[in-house]
Model the fold of this input.
Amino acid sequence: MRTAPWPARSGALLLRDPLPEDADQLVALRNNPVVNRFMLRTHVDPDAYAQEWASIPDSDTDFSCIAELNGRLAGLGFLDITDGWGQPGMPRGTQGIIGYMLQPDLAGRGLGTDLARGLLTAAFDALQLRRVTASCNADNVASARVLEKNGMRREQHGIEDSWHADLGWVDGYQYAMLAREWTAARTVQ
Ligand SMILES: CC(C)(COP(=O)(O)OP(=O)(O)OC[C@H]1O[C@@H](n2cnc3c(N)ncnc32)[C@H](O)[C@@H]1OP(=O)(O)O)[C@@H](O)C(=O)NCCC(=O)NCCS
Done:
C-alpha cells in the first residue's frame, strides 16, 4: 500500500513537503546559474515556479520535496510518478523519475548521495513504484556518481543527444533501478 513519503530523514538531511515560506529560497536555488549548468531549463519564471511548488502537496503524481539541513533549505528533490510504454492494459503510474539539486556551498560532502537515496527510498518503499529512472548529462560527473553510488544502472548512453548552451551537442546518460534491485541491494548491505 502506498504511504506518504515525507517527512523522512536521509543521512543528515530532513526531506519534507514544501511550505509557502520556502518559495523565495527555492526559486533562488533553481535560478542559480551554477546549479543550472546542466539542467534543461536554465531559468524559471519565479511566480510560476513558486506556484508549481505550492501545488505539490496536493498532487497525486508529484512528490518533490525540500531537503533541509539544520533548518536551512539545502536542496530540492524531484520525484514524479509516470507511466512506462505499453499496450492497452498496462498498469498505470508504476514508474518514477528522480532529480536533485543542492546549494553549491554544500556540494562534495555526500549530501547529494543522501538526497538521491531518500528519493529512491520514497519511490520504492513509500510509493511502491516498480522502476525509477534518472537522467544526467555525461559531463555532469558528480550527478552520475550520485546515481551510481546509489546502485542505479546506466542503461542508456545517448551520443550527442543533448544540446548544451556552452558545450554544444553533448552526451546524455539515463540510469534506472527496479524495485527488486533496490530490495536486493539492501539485503546485501
Ligand atoms: C549533482 C549534485 C547533487 C551532487 O551533490 P554532492 O553533494 O556534491 O554529491 P556527493 O558529495 O554525494 O557525491 C559526489 C560524487 O561525485 C564525485 N565528483 C564530483 N565532481 C567530480 C569530478 N569533477 N570528477 C570526478 N568525480 C567527481 C565526488 O568525488 C563524489 O564521489 P565519491 O563519493 O565517490 O568521491 C550537486 O553537485 C548539484 O546540486 N549540482 C547541480 C544540480 C545538478 O546538476 N543536478 C543534477 C541534474 S541531472
